[in-house]
Amino acid sequence: KPLVQQELSWELANLILVCKGSNNASFVRAFWETMCREWFDIDKHRIDKYLLLARRVVFFTFRSMQQSGWDQQLVGLYMQMYQDFAAHPTEPKVPNSSRTHLADVYVDELVRLVAALLKDEEDPQVETAKIPVATLLEPFMRFISTTTIRHLPPKIQESVFENTVIRIAEAEELANAADSDVEMGGSSDEGVVKDNQIEHETLDKVQFLMDSIPDIKARLLAVASEEGALPLGRKRLYALYQTLCETFPDEENDVVFPGEITVKEPVGAEERKIANKHKRKKEGKRRELKERTRAKADERKSLIAASAVQLDVNALEHEATADEERSYQEDLAKIRDMDRRAGVDSMGED
Question: Full-prediction pTM beyond 0.90?
Answer without folding.
Answer: no
